[in-house]
Give the backbone structure.
Amino acid sequence: MIQLIHSTDINKEKWDALVYNANNPSLFGYSWYLDAAFPGWSAFVYDDYKAGIIFPLRKKMRIAYAYNPLFVRECGIFSSSPLPDPLRIEFARILSSAARLIHLYTFDPIQGFTCNDRSCQWLAMSKNQQQITNGYNENTKRNIKKSVHSGHSVLFNHDYQTVLAMFEQNKLHEIDNLKRKDMQTLSNIMQATLSRASGFAAHVYNNDVCIASGFFIRHARILLYLKGAASPEGKKTGAMHRLIHETLMAEHGTVNYVDFGGSNLPSVARFYKGFGASDFHYSACRHTIRLTKFRKT
């Protein structure tokens, strides 16, 4: 039986165990992350947490809709074993009737939904440090050298406020679907991460001025690059390339993969691929229940 359970009623210990043991474990599925990113989340749960999918249900003017929350990349089905086709079809049937408008990012396409391919970038960290740096392209190597020759210093700490300030000043205006009010959600995620001792901030300084900053989260031997930004000076002097490079070197031997988050935008994907990262694909799935109009007679 599949039932919709609100986060206030969900057994979070069982839910987190489901996410942890899933074939596709994802940071974005853990209850603590969802509580910070989208308080009031719900999930469709099958048979005492043997499988489940995040369902970010909302209502506006009595119309139910479900849109993928900001800063949550995947809302796919979690299961510790491959889902049999009948169960996958049943999840799709229930999802399709649960809201008037649905737009979710999922691990795999949902049957009956209109789905498009999306990509993010991942880097395997199984090689030694020299092999990893050998995988950088020439532009990445050149920008790292530019930062080194400029005398920049790199600092790791828990100063998430500087990351937020740098992002708001230098990056927010470039992202259409983010507003200034969304910075509080980003702050909540960073604070929740630090309260679990699962994250850190990285900064590049030119003398006493921060010119690049980023926030990272560790989970299941994966390092997620959450958000970051560089100032105009930092962009000119390779500061963000240096920040990523120094973070990769510092985390080598600790994590198996780096999840850059990434983007479908060629320029953003190209930046991460400059470190040797490869595309990881997921799906953007949409479904709309259209109301039938009756002609008066």
